[in-house]
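Section 5.1 Outputs to date
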Amino acid sequence: MWSGRFEGRPDPDVFEFGRSFSFDRRLLDDDITGSMAWVASLGDAGVLSSAEVEQISSALAQTRAEAGSIYDLQSTEDEDVHSYVEAKL
């Protein structure tokens, strides 16, 4: 997420301070549902083709299925649940 905006990696202490994956992982299903709605909207607006909408939606559904229970999700290097979903895609 930091690439393209900053040179180098964020300060480890600042990154750790803002990290919320351990408790916002319970939002995984909601995050994926919102991402699917956003993808559909981008398709409706003509920003994404129907094939791109299908590919992204399928990948999001697969991410949801692979995650299983939100409590099965182990801590990752991701800052938050949305970063986790983006990394999976």
